[in-house]
Amino acid sequence: VLGHGAVVSIAVIFLTSGAMFGANDVAVVAFATELDQKPAAGAALAAWAAGSFLAALAYGSRSWGWPLWKQLLAGLVALAVGTSTFSLAPSLVVLSVLALMTGLAIAPTLTNGNNIVQVTVAPSQLTEGLAWVSTALNVGVSVGSLLVGQATDTGGSRAGYLTVASFAWAAVVAGIVSLPALRRARTTRSLSAH
Question: Quick one: angle between helices 5-34 and 92-103, nearest 10?
């Protein structure tokens, strides 16, 4: 299944996106700790998750005219732009609002990545294909948590959030570099969103 360029591309995109997710969790706690409001970190993380949940409901309730690769890239850019604002937040309330808005891109982006794998690989390889990209996402979460921990130790939450944004932009770059593979991927099945 790794012979499919699209699967490798989604795995790399999910690796960098996962790093962003893992880094964000640590950066939120660092920011709340600096404000002496550590227990409130959960609210900002909940806002991030709530945005994703709301988008999942809205996104899944309709068909979209764009090809999957365009939807994926739009989501990656939205995540990168959104996370780039986090380091500017003066308070946890503002951060929570920014996280809610940025979180709207999470579920559609991950769904599109998985959908690309689903329509690219043969049905007999679907489980393996999805396992590769979900593993890449989880490895990314671990790597992102590790690296942002080091960044916040030396530069505080601002350095942490710059790291979060860096991972998000790395995912955009991975998406752009992957466009030829994603656009020419031979599909064996169709999805309504394809």
Answer: 170
